Amino acid sequence: MHALCLLVSTCLCLSLAQDEIVDLTHTFGKKTIYWPGNPPFNFSNVFRLTGTTGYIAEANAFQTAEHSGTHMDAPRHFCPDGKRMHELDMNRLSGPGVVIDVRKQSEANRDFQATEQTFRDWEEEHGTIPDGAIVLFNFGWDKFWPDRKLIFNTDDVMNPSTFHYPGVSLNATKWLTSNRKVHAVGGDTPSPDYGQSSLFETHVMLLCDHGIIILENVANLNSMPATGTKVYIGALKLENGSGTPVRLFAVPMSSASVARCSVLLLALIFSLKALL
Asked: In DSSP terms, which residues pair with 252 in a beta bridge?
């Protein structure tokens, strides 16, 4: 009976760890937000075959811009010689999650830009940003999705010169790329460059100077801890693509959970040995 209880506890432990996957992706559909100039999302039915019990086969077609909804930028997005989607190293599509919470600053100033000090303050509390990290800024912009006027913070959603949302300063980007080796940088806003940027210097430094992937319009960062996750970028291997919509998600890597499950597994093994 003791061994059976341990077996049930172990299974529960492992299933709970599995169930804690965090979906970081906004649903794609007619309300999906895209940068001005891109074609809107389109979805249409190709066929439905019906039988006596209802639909037995269905196929649909959809069209979307590369840079729409929750998506990634490949270096080619800004760099003439940058890698395209089908050329990216798979190893760069995952890494330890680093979530930097700057909601208070962004609430106080819609044109807020993270600085070098933002990174230093985060590391003082949570430790050094690990190699291969996927750095995600929680600006608190997720709560505005999918309202274009609130996301771009303007009544003129087709005019980028009127946009006001937070981002990452060139100063901060220089510090990060000079001192840490990360795989990706992104957040829950439409761009890592703040809304009033006209030169997109953060884009250029990340994509062109260092080949670092950019993630935009990330969802559910309020559900993410500052550390302790591994983030996966489910990207299309799109031939010649400069970017693609992604299914972004994170899996917890809690040492406490792992340790608890390991102890249960060891206890189960010893109990089973005792019964044999």
From this structure: 229
Residues with a known catalytic role: 77
CB of 84 closer than 8 Å to CB of 242: yes
**CA 41 to CA 38: how far, in whole Å?**
9
Structure tokens that stand for 107 in this block: 């609430």
Distance CA 22, CA 229 (A): 9
Token pair belonging to 265: 């597994």
- Residue 98 in tokens: 């680093």
DSSP SS3 for 113: strand
C-alpha 68/C-alpha 33 separation (Å) is 6
E strands within the chain? 22-23, 42-51, 54-63, 71-73, 94-101, 113-114, 134-138, 167-168, 184-187, 213-216, 229-235, 243-252
Q: What is the pLDDT of residues 194-239, one digit of tens each?
A: 999 999 999 999 999 999 999 999 999 999 999 999 999 999 999 9
Backbone angles phi, psi at 265, to 5 degrees: -65, -40
Nearest to 182, CA basis, from 138, 225, 231, 139: 231
pLDDT per residue over 21-33, tens digit each? Answer: 999 999 999 999 9
